[in-house]
Amino acid sequence: LHPDEFFQSPEVMAGDILNLQVYYPWEFLSSSPCRTVVFPLMTSGVTYWVIKSLQQLDLCSSCINSYTLLVSPRLLFTMFSFILDYSVYRLAPFWEADPWKALVLLAGSYVTLVFYTRTFTNALEGLLFALLMVLVSSRKPDGSPAEPTSSPLVGIITTAGFFNRPTFLAFALMPLLYWAGLIVDSQKGIKTVINHFLKLVLCACFTAIVFVTADTFYFTAMGLDNLYSIKKSSLFDVIGQLNEKMIVTPFNFLSYNLNPRNLALHGSHPRVTHFTVNGIMLFGILHILAIGAGFKMLKKYICQLIQVKSYCHGSSGLFVHSEGNPALLLFYFVPLAFLSLFSHQEPRFLIPLILPLVLFSTSQNRAVKWKHVIIIFNVLGALLFGCLHQGGLIPCLLHLEQLVHSPESSNHPRHYTLLFAHTYMPPRSLLNIKKRDTHIEVIDMAGSEEETLCRTVEQRANNFTCNDCRVFVIIPGTVRASITKCGVSFKNETLIFPHLSMEDPPQIPFLFSGNWRSQLGLYILQLDRDQ
């Protein structure tokens, strides 16, 4: 889906825990720490520690391989995704939605099936947002809102979400205001109100201290391996190191992302991209229905303000039952508006919003008459993003891992050069190469121009100092023709199907030709150095 599903958690932990050759993204370098290490440790780190322990105990002789490295963190995230189902089931009665219809709508969404089963920090952000909504939404037996009693948990989850992704504050704003409103309306006295807020602040501060301490330890040592040397130091030395450089990763994150020049390096988009493109891409007709309902409620609210009752037919203002509960719309559109303030806008940033959108869409059966559209949309979405989009890259890495670790390669060590061009950045960890191994080189050419690509390939072909070298070029079928212009020959072509590169999309006429599979495939080309 996106390089960040590997490079914000599994890739880093594979290097630290399994001692594999990996690519550390800039956010995890000690010179620019912008990501907390706590959540990667609790997710990918735990799964990798388990498979490492199983192999060390001889319970599984080959537990560490590309398949387990890929699947084990995803399996854990899939288990975590049921927190979303639990939250919808708990929240649906509170927001006057049918629990089972809401669960069906949630489970049938390709966002749930694809994004929430991948190792994205956005998926964790969505789960924490769901738990926060559960904590602030409780009812008494008579159906009236109950006084909040979970102030410590609210503080812990809000702070944890902030350290996971500082954008979590945009999602948490409305739930926190709703929670504060319930406390003030409970009329229990000023002491009770202060008590609630003190509990929240104290637990938030304690959670922040835990995250800051863990991150400072990690980035000061720069990796888990180096933590052992810190453990051997005296307590005073450790405290001295922490005091010298206290690392607060969310502040570094905000400092970087609030600079428009930095965001431009990752891609700039119009401010309306989330509203007009990404929301529809992720949620389809549900996003359009929410926009329509929002405009209707806004119109009625304005009509009440200017007191044109004859025109509004006596509407009761913003909180109109005929249009549903507006709080859910605020839970959806307020984070959307805040995220739209930034020029870098990717669809995955919005995946936490599936919870309020599902609840709103099933509260008065808004989605029922559109069920056929919803089914077709999510089937196509799952096919596009779950199968086709960059679909050949991971199978390619699994194939190359078997190649470089084959018995033939073990008996006769060779030097392998793996050159990736016009693909997403390949996660090195899936090649399962130990840090001490130097016979495998990975070159990421990204979207290099044809001239640059040819120059690099020719240099490798003419490197006569290495007699037993194997050079492989990995390139999508849509740009396969450009590599033939480089004046080199290839052997042992392997086509991995399917693979769709949106950066180099196939031409429509080719899809209806006899060569259509090559347009939707990823090639592994071995350079024929003898020629």
Automatic annotation (TrEMBL):
Keyword GTP-binding attached: no
Domain of life, source organism: Eukaryota
Keyword terms: Endoplasmic reticulum, Glycosyltransferase, GPI-anchor biosynthesis, Membrane, Transferase, Transmembrane, Transmembrane helix
GO biological process terms on file: GPI anchor biosynthetic process
Topology within the bilayer: Multi-pass membrane protein
Protein localization: Endoplasmic reticulum membrane
EC number(s) given by UniProt: 2.4.1.-
Listed transmembrane segments: 63-84, 99-116, 168-185, 197-219, 275-295, 375-400
UniProt entry tagged with the keyword Glycosyltransferase: yes
Pathway the protein contributes to: Glycolipid biosynthesis; glycosylphosphatidylinositol-anchor biosynthesis
Entry-linked InterPro entries: GPI_mannosylTrfase (IPR005599)
Record's GO cellular component terms: endoplasmic reticulum membrane
GO molecular function terms noted in the UniProt entry: alpha-1,2-mannosyltransferase activity
Family stated for the protein in its record: Belongs to the glycosyltransferase 22 family. PIGZ subfamily.
Protein name: Mannosyltransferase
Organism: Pygoscelis papua (Gentoo penguin)
